[in-house]
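Worked problem 6 (solution included).
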Amino acid sequence: MQVTPQDVADAATAIQSHVLRTPLVASPRLGELLGTRLWLKLENLQHTGSFKDRGSCLKLQRLAQQPEPPSGVVAASAGNHAQGVAHHGRRLGLPVVIVMPQTTPFAKVERTEALGAEVLLRGESVAESTTFAQELARERNLAFVHPYDDPVVVAGQGTIAIEMLEDRPELDTLVVPIGGGGLCAGIAVWAKHVNPRLRVIGVQTELCPAMRARLRGEPPPVLRTHTLADGIAVKNPGVVTSEILAQLLDDLLLVDETDIETAVQLLAAQQKVVAEGAGAAGIAAMLRHPAVFANRDVGAVICGGNIDRRMLSTVLLRGLQRDGKIAKLRISIQDVPGVLARVTQMIGAAGADIIDIEHQRLFNNLAPRQAELDVVMETRGRAHVDRILLTLEAAGFPARAL
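Solution. The predicted structure is:
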């Protein structure tokens, strides 16, 4: 293998003053729900919000320490890798160019520029941006910083395992998201060195299981990157990382979009942890494959927290709707004065809080003196919604939950 335990140990010494030693926190409530003893490694607390700080820090330090350092560095990324490289490039005085796809949300461009990088929007995908970045590296004599397929970067990411096992040596299972494989490969190198019986479980989204296909020697399926876990939606796994994981990975589990969404919701509700979709993938795997983790001492790597606020709001509201704590009712009424006030008074008296209401007379097949109310309300849960429906029905207002 191109990465050894000594490489990881040396990386930990090199970066310890420049990245956060993130906490490994117990999560008894979530662990009880999942049927395991659970600890969360909060890499979402790093300066740029993800584990990418580690590998970027080590790689750029090594470049800056060369007898003839490069005139600057270039990377291709639409997210966390970009910010990690930009942050440490500024700290080390290395000019940084980041190539992003033309479709990258402006907020990500703005955050990367705020860290001192020159941002170029080129290509329709990260793959196209990578090709441009590599050409730019040759033209400008810049060092290209790969997000995962680099032994130095892998060693930097592996420092997470050192911290986890120092804090909780009793852990018997580590669950780690996999995109290109740098994070999981680095963790596996150290974990298996410390305890060969310690299980390292990788997680990928069903929409983009490229590493799983690579490790199984299967032709890659149709890969889709439009997923809540976009941070691990990598179509081209690393050569270095694939070699390591082929030898050291115990299992690679797949999760779907519902699993990931639920995991983001649970982390926020149960642990008050904000995780991006990729960061919540380990919890998603525990939801989808509970038998793999039952009654185990599990360390889950929350690898990032850079979720768009609008998306986070949507995910949390969908969770409330799924739990019945936000409900939408369609109520049939007689379209006469006073009925609307009566219905809203009944809902309020039942203990629900009306968020929105729409009085619909036109776009339905009702008689002219009838109408429908669409009422969005906050409730205490599904049982509460059912009681409100019964109350309305008893008062002569047929209603149903949408």
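Discussion: Residues 151-167 form the longest helix (17 residues).
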